[in-house]
Design goal:
This protein is mainly beta. It is built from one helix and eight strands, in the order αββββββββ. It has an eight-stranded antiparallel β-barrel with strand order 1-2-3-4-5-6-7-8. It starts with a helix and ends with a strand.
């Protein structure tokens, strides 16, 4: 009888110490963010505001790849034009792709893409005229910080420089980031 208990105790101990491992990889993280932006256009000398959408694929802990769309607008009074007093509106629509490098909650990012610029002039009597449009290289570089929320989402605060060759800006954005 002692042999039977000894055998059962030995079998039980062996069963408890056997490790069962499983190879697992973290699934890629897909993130979507949206938010306003504001800044100053130091080429055209005026305040800028707008908004942006961004998708991020983050396959590694420290590296993410982004694709996004920004809309930026600047309005400026032109008091002495040949048409009288006018308000000039300069708009930029930009599609861009880029990368981010993360250091904890801080990150550095850069992107390149296509920017479509359009200008319009509005006179005091309500008449509008075209200021032309053009396509050009859109570029951005910046640094940011992520504040994690309880639901795994985040608030991103980013500052940097962005724009086209005729309309470079310095500014920032605050985005809500949906992490999935």
């Amino acid at each position: 009888m002692n042999k039977r208990y000894l055998f059962l105790c030995l079998f039980f101990c062996m069963a408890m110490t056997t490790a069962h491992g499983q190879i697992s990889t973290n699934p890629p993280k897909h993130n979507f963010s949206i938010g306003p932006l504001a800044g100053y256009d130091y080429e055209l000398k005026g305040p800028v505001y707008g908004g942006g959408l961004m998708y991020e694929f983050r396959p590694f802990k420290n590296v993410g790849f982004t694709a996004g769309f920004n809309y930026e607008q600047m309005r400026k009074n032109v008091p002495e034009s040949s048409f009288g007093e006018e308000t000039w509106r300069h708009e930029v629509y930009a599609f861009h792709v880029g990368a981010r490098y993360y250091m904890g909650d801080f990150y550095l990012g850069a992107a390149l893409g296509l920017g479509h610029e359009r200008g319009t002039f509005k006179q005091t009597d309500g008449m509008t005229r075209s200021g032309g449009s053009t396509n050009s290289l859109y570029k951005s570089i910046g640094a940011g910080y992520q504040i994690s929320l309880r639901n795994r989402d985040a608030i991103e605060i980013e500052t940097g420089t962005f724009g086209t060759s005729t309309s470079m800006k310095v500014g920032g954005t605050v985005r809500y980031k949906f992490r999935r």
